[in-house]
């Protein structure tokens, strides 16, 4: 039997999702409970491996089990044993052919920035403080240069081990909030530190330090040094994971073509 968990977590006190040599991780907390229940190790498979300090409003993991529990009992078993910064929001049985990572066709991230004369200690770990004045329109215009299918080598960590760095960005918006700005991006997938590097560049554009029109050339250069710094992790939220084309279509304009395995093969060949 294959079980799918939907969960949310505050990443402030985690070393990331994936198990590390030292420090707390979300994966460890989930597998710890499964090992206690099964009396043997059970591996979980996530849709996304968020970095240290990154939060998730929606994350999926699946695992295989011989235990015959209802979704309600699975949810209770986890939530009664998990720490307060992780919560299972739903549980369902899925076909054994389904895989949380490989059947994910898109993700949405949101990055939160707040401003003010002083840093707000109550927002430590959950939003990024940016005290400099920003111009909204140039950031909004610059964000549109990321749209489409590109090799994002310039906008991912040099430590990225994946060889294929081509990703599709469907939508990228920048909005002014009551006390700052929010950057919302939807794409087919994202590379290591990719969202944080793109946001950092847009912040530099908003401050007048960089030009948005330079983004196409930076993408084409495939050179990490061209893009600049990486924004702090604390402002980043994995907001949504799309497991079907119908779910993704709900959040995108009707004229945007969604890249699936089928039409990607057509485009590539």
Strand pairing plus helix content: what structural class?
alpha+beta
Helical proportion, percent range: 10-25%
Q: Kindly report the CATH topology of the largest domain.
A: Alpha-Beta Plaits
State Rg.
19 Å
Catalytic activity: uridine(38/39/40) in tRNA = pseudouridine(38/39/40) in tRNA
Binding site for substrate: 109
Function: Formation of pseudouridine at positions 38, 39 and 40 in the anticodon stem and loop of transfer RNAs.
GO molecular function: RNA binding; tRNA pseudouridine(38-40) synthase activity
Polypeptide structure, described:
It is a single chain. With 269 residues, the chain is of the alpha+beta class. It folds into 2 domains: 2-94, Pseudouridine synthase I, catalytic domain, N-terminal subdomain (Alpha-Beta Plaits), CATH 3.30.70.580; 106-268, Pseudouridine synthase I, catalytic domain, C-terminal subdomain (Alpha-Beta Plaits, 2-Layer Sandwich), CATH 3.30.70. It contains 7 helices and 10 strands. It has helices at 26-38, 71-79, 136-143, 194-206, 215-221, 245-250, 261-268; strands spanning 2-9, 45-46, 55-64, 86-94, 106-114, 128-129, 148-151, 166-176, 180-187, 236-242. Strands 1, 2, 3, 4, 5, 6, 7, 8, 9 and 10 form a 10-stranded mixed β-sheet that branches. β8 (166-176) and β9 (180-187) form a beta hairpin. α3 (136-143) crosses α4 (194-206). The chain is globular, with a radius of gyration of 19 Å. It starts with a strand and ends with a helix. The relative contact order is 0.17. Residues 265-269 have low confidence and may be disordered.
